[in-house]
# Entry
Amino acid sequence: MNIGQAAKATGISTKMIRYYESIGLVAAPHRTESGYRVYLDDDLHALRFINRARDLGFSVEQMRDLLTLWRDRDRASADVKAIARAHIAVLAEKARALAAMSETLQHLAETCHGDDRPSCPIIEKIAAAVPSSGRPANRPRFGIAQLH
Amino acid sequence: MNIGQAAKATGISTKMIRYYESIGLVAAPHRTESGYRVYLDDDLHALRFINRARDLGFSVEQMRDLLTLWRDRDRASADVKAIARAHIAVLAEKARALAAMSETLQHLAETCHGDDRPSCPIIEKIAAAVPSSGRPANRPRFGIAQLH
DNA sequence: CTTGACCTTCCCATCATGGGAAGGTGTATC
DNA sequence: GATACACCTTCCCATGATGGGAAGGTCAAG
# Structure
């Protein structure tokens, strides 16, 4: 099985399959004489595992840990659960932060006529913060760019 | 006012203030004879505007648009509202996606004993997808890395 | 034997942000 | 005045996960 077929079979792009190999997240597969990568069932299982972990928002480094635990038949389920729980908390906090932004903006938008006139509470409140939207100086920022 | 003081006054790091200047998001401030940047009230207003827009999850390009609209006294409030509404939808969708991940993982974690024994439904279900967690092939991915 | 679909490696871009080096400036204290 | 220290300048590099694209090799069908 070539890399393109493996990509279709696992839902991971060829680019990313090569990337995961380059950073050692997955083992290098066999090669044909001409240098083509050949994927076997075990390779595909690992890639599918990665795809599902990725869908759950795990980072590459977390997936590395999960793959190690997956392969270790003697690991304690507590080890897996600890990773999961930490991740759940981070996901929930990011979701909360985004929802809060959305709602704040929604409130602002509701008070904006949205017609030809220039008066616009949205931009006015961004220009001069209302107390309720003030960020207490050192609360961690959760802008879009900080969400990974 | 030097850049460090401007940073404290606006909540934007010196690094980012210089960056916003370099990409033309804010105008270059005056300089002292020795080359130090000097920030005046107008500069600070713009930086505070940016900080608040950033707290609402707006991207640099969206902030560029918002700043233009802010400075244009004759703009239609509909123009501002359109940007806000598009952004609200994106934020809400990202929040939803993250919350869904968190909940899926939460369900898995609840069925895991989290003790010394190796049996762990979390990792087993990542290894062999359950139907309910299957991603319908071409639904847009919303992993952590795609959230910006 | 040509065509076209694949494969290979390599480099570059994204987005917003921080780190750090190498060197200049400004001010308070000895 | 000199020394120390905090600040400023520009410049380059890194992040994380992903895609784009170039330049060239391989394979199978017509």
